[in-house]
Design brief:
- This protein has 375 residues and is an alpha+beta fold.
- 24% of the residues lie in helices and 40% in strands.
- Among the domains are: 93 residues, conserved putative lor/sdh protein from methanococcus maripaludis s2 fold; 88 residues, Efflux pump adaptor protein, beta barrel domain (Elongation Factor Tu (Ef-tu), domain 3, Beta Barrel); 62 residues, Helix Hairpins.
- The protein contains three helices and 19 strands.
- The strands form four sheets. Strands 2-9-12-11-10-13 form a six-stranded antiparallel β-barrel. A four-stranded antiparallel sheet has the order 6-5-3-8. Strands 18-1-19 form a three-stranded mixed sheet, with no helix packed on it.
- β14 and β15 form a beta hairpin.
- The longest helix has 34 residues.
- The termini are far apart.
- The model has no long low-confidence stretch (mean pLDDT 80).
Length: 375
């Protein structure tokens, strides 16, 4: 009985040992295969990094403002008798825009002129009588005062009539008309806006740390979002004397030529101030940058070898220092050399040493001055 039990135990131990050995060999083989496994290559696009000369610039968001801009309004109350302009029209300084009804003032002027003529005749008569000592000096002074008062009254009525003739205070472009013929206007009611568009101002803010680089006379390049590819050039003409306590920015004003009236007051623009000489950088598409809290990087393509010694095309993660952006491109200040082949799309799925398959039939845009496409 004991002998039979021993035989069964030995047999069971042999079977368990054989099964364990077989399983160990299976696991060892799987581990070996996993260690030598190479993931399939990722499809990417690449570009060769090139060296470029970019001027040192300071970018800011700005808005357009007219050198002269007003809302023309009625100086005195009255009824609109004539409108002499069309909406959006260009007018010259002094051109009549509207006339208010002055029939009452014209009648008052006629009466005042008659009173003035009588006062002048009376003054001349009193002058002769004074020379003959017929009237007293007091009577002559009264006649003189009457003559001057009548002249002043005529001048006052003429000034009232002139103030009811609304003229353009300067040359510029009119906005939308806000009055109609026959409409009664109170003093201060708006008729139309008037903007002088050439030259024109662009106002933008720069951080207080950059104030040493921003000086009057520096060149400013301006682009508008809806005018892609069109660049306006001007110069800084004024810098505010105070720093905004909320933003710690200083307002800067540039003056630009705007002969065709493309820029309009209130437009949003991108301003770029040239603050130094050109710097040598390496330019790559912005899509090539992998942004991360611990540092920005690019993936450089090179030749690699797998554990079996087989060569393949793989990538190396390279940390870089970024500079300014221009259009679709961004400047690399350090970490990349001209001639390096850089991945431009698919960077989010790469890791150091990953195999890649390059397909450059369709590449991301890489234009320093891209044009807005019609949607």
């Amino acid at each position: 009985m004991v002998k039979r039990m021993l035989v069964m135990l030995v047999t069971t131990a042999l079977i368990v040992g054989a099964l364990g050995f077989v399983k160990f060999r299976q696991i060892q083989t799987a581990v070996g295969q996993a260690a030598s496994f190479q993931p399939p290559p990722e499809a990417v696009t690449t570009i060769t990094a090139v060296q470029a000369q970019w001027p040192e610039t300071l970018s800011a968001i700005g808005s357009v403002a007219a050198v002269q801009g007003v809302t023309i309004s009625a100086d005195l109350p009255g009824t609109v008798d004539r409108i002499g302009f069309d909406a959006g029209q260009w007018v010259r300084e002094g051109e009549v825009l509207a006339l208010l009804d002055t029939r009452q003032e014209q009648a008052q002027l006629a009466a005042a002129e008659a009173q003035r003529d009588l006062a002048r005749v009376n003054f001349d008569r009193m002058q002769g009588l004074l020379n003959e000592n017929v009237v007293s000096r007091a009577e002559f002074d009264r006649a003189t005062a009457d003559e001057r008062q009548s002249d002043a009254h005529v001048t006052e009525i003429r000034a009232t009539i002139e103030r009811k003739t609304i003229r353009a205070p300067f040359s510029g472009v009119l906005g939308l008309r806000r009055v109609n013929l026959g409409q009664y206007l109170s003093a201060g009611d708006a008729l139309v806006t008037l903007q002088s568009l050439n030259p024109i101002y662009v106002n933008f803010g720069v951080p207080q740390q950059a104030m040493a680089q921003v000086k009057a006379g520096r060149t400013v390049k301006v682009t508008a979002g809806d005018r892609a590819g069109v660049e306006f050039s001007g110069r800084i003409t004024a810098i505010d004397s105070v720093v905004d306590e909320a933003t710690r920015n200083v307002q800067v004003q540039a003056t630009l030529s705007n002969t065709d009236g493309t820029l309009r007051p209130g437009m949003f623009v991108q301003a770029e101030v040239l603050v130094g000489a050109s710097a040598t950088i390496v330019a790559v598409p912005a899509s090539a940058i992998s942004y991360a809290p611990y540092g920005n990087s690019v993936f450089v393509v090179g030749d690699w070898q797998d554990p079996n010694g087989k060569s393949y095309r793989g990538v190396r993660q390279q940390f870089v220092k970024l500079g300014a952006a221009r259009g679709d491109q961004i400047a690399i200040l350090s970490g990349l050399k001209p001639g390096d082949e850089v991945v431009t799309s698919g960077v989010f799925k790469l890791r150091n040493g990953a195999a890649v398959q390059i397909n450059n039939k369709v590449r991301p845009s890489n234009d320093a001055a891209p044009k807005l496409e019609n949607s």
